[in-house]
Amino acid sequence: MGLEKSEKIYERAKTLLPGGVSSPVRAIKPYPFYTASANGSKITDVDGNEYIDYCLAYGPKILGHAHPRIKAAIVEQLEKGWLYGTPTELEVNLAEKIAGLYPSIDMLRFVSTGTEATMSAIRAARGFTGKNKFIKIEGGFHGAHDAVLVKAGSGATTLGKPDSMGIPGDFTKYTLQVPFNDIEAMTSLIESNRDELAAVIIEPVMGNIGPILPEGDYLKEVRKVTQENDVLLIFDEVITGFRLAMGGAQEYYGVTPDMTTLGKIVGGGMPIGVFGGRREIIEMIAPSGGVYQAGTFSGNPASAAAGIAVLEVLEKENVHRILNAKGDELRARLSDLVSDMGLDYNVCGIASMFKIFFGDAPSNYQEVLKCDKEGYFEFFHRMLKSGVFLPPSQFETNFLSFAHTDLDIDRTLEAYEANLK
Ligand SMILES: *Cc1c(COP(=O)(O)O)cnc(C)c1O
Question: Against a cut of 0.85, is the pTM above it?
Answer without folding.
Answer: yes
